[in-house]
Structure formats: structure tokens, C-alpha cells
Here is the input.
Amino acid sequence: MKLRTLVAGAVAFPLGMGLLACAQAQEFPARPLRILVGYPPGGVPDVVARYVGGQMAPLLGQAVNVENKPGAGGLLAAQEVIKSAPDGYTFLMASATDWGIMPALRPGIYDPVSAFTPLCGVGFNALMLSVKGDFPAKNFQEFVAMAKAKPGSLRYASGGTAGFHHLYMESLKAALGIDLVHIPYKGGPAMSQALAAGDVEVTAVALITSGPLVRAGKLRYIAISTAERSPLAPTVPSMREVGVPDLHFAATIGFVGPAGLPKPVLDRLAGSCAKVAQTAEFNTRAAESFGMDPAYRNPAELAEIIRADIPRYARAVKISGAKLD
Here is the structure.
């Protein structure tokens, strides 16, 4: 009798777990969800989160609210998500800053591989290496020649020490063996305006920020920060084309949840995000409104990007010598 009971229990256990998983999938979500953004309203992460969240809401049958939690380079939002319950109701609009740059700047703060559950990648931001419209150097090669002829005479703008722009420019300097003076500003718009005004000679900035100034003839692109050209700027040469084949800076943007999300919940979130990210409307908005290369990535593909970005940005932080106070 006891043996029969044990066998019945052994059969019922996996069956019960399967029924529990199905129940979780059917019941989730039972209340509104939150997307945390570690930056102020109006930037690319914010507008992407609001659009994708808004499109996910009817697919999930619940409101998806975006909450801006700026501070410490996105760390405050990331830590809140990491510490949140693994129930799928709180997730993060994340980028290379969250899984690559911040852990390199603050060793031991968290392990991006074990701290997050990747949900969906939606695109990436490249940087446009830009000079003033009337700058004497007409292309990348002439710019490099000028920098080598007069070490320390050219200034570059960044959006702040240890930020994506700063790490790219320092990595570019190291790859080319040139000396440029770093002038930090607060964000992309300020960088672009400083370049247009002639306060610096070069900067690397996002398309969405620099595009209007380029169209007005105030700025000019001489290269893109990625190994390949972008369809958003098809005439701008890539890092490989200008002779820096090993340098590739593209900030993937996507959504991650805390570690340990149940598979039915993960599948529901990832599936709804995938449906949004693969629509023609999203691709058009990403390119025209967000200044972002649309590129859907499933959870496994996003996990691979995260693993590849960790050593990439650790090297960049080491090269830059950047430290957080």
C-alpha cells in the first residue's frame, strides 16, 4: 500500500508541476506591469520603452507602465529590478551600460549573466564620429593624420566620464595611437551643440541627436562606430573600412527581468515583446523616430550579446582608466 502511494505520488509530482506552470501562464499577468528606465524622460531608452510597452499592453491584457528612475548611470533602476520578485511584473529597459559598462566600473556590484533574465532585444544604437561642417579634415583618414601631426591639439566631447561615448573615443584613441583631449558634457545634445559651436573638434554621438545638425550642414559624419555600415547612414564608412576592424561599439537595447522568472511568465513576456519588435511599424519608428537600428533578438540571442559585451566593455573601461567617485 505504501509502495503504491509512493508511485502515485511520484507520477503526480511532475503532473502537478505541469499544471502549475499552465496555471501561471493563464493567470499572468493579473495586474499592471512596470518597465523601469534608468534615465530621464525623452531619451532613446525612455521613448523605446514607452512605445514597446504601449504595444505590449493589449497583447498582455494589462497596462504596462514606464517608470523613470534615473541615477548612478542607470544603476538605481537596474538594482531595483534585480531585487524585485521574479514574477514578471517588473522588468528593465536595458542596454550595454547595464550589463557591460556598469559591472566593469563597479566590480562585484552584480553579475549580469546571473542577475538578469533576458527577454527581448529590439535594436541597437551606433555612434557617429562627427566633425564640424567646415572642419579642414574631409574624411576619417585626414582627421587621423591631423591628430597625429599635432598630438593633444584636438578636443573631443563626450556625454560624461565612463559613458558610452567616452569609452568609444578612448578605445578609438588607443587603436589609432592618437592623442585627443577629453571634454565631458551632460548628454548627447550638449555634445552636438559644443561641436557645432567649435568648442571641440570631434565627437561621437547618436544619429537621433546629431541628425538635424548634419542636415543643416553644421556637422559632418566621418565614420560610424560599428564594424559594418548602417542602413540608417549608408554613405558613412564603418570601422572596418577605415582600418579599425576590431573596434565595434553598438549599444544593444532590450528588456531584461530579474533572475529566476518562471518559464511560462518568461515566454509570455518574450512572446509579446517579439510580436511588437518584428512589426513593420516598429522598424519604421525605430529608424525614423528613435534613431536606432531595429534588430529583434530572442532571449537566447540577447543572452549571447550580454556575454559578449561583458569582456568588450571591461577592456574599454580599462583602456579609458575611467573610475566612478
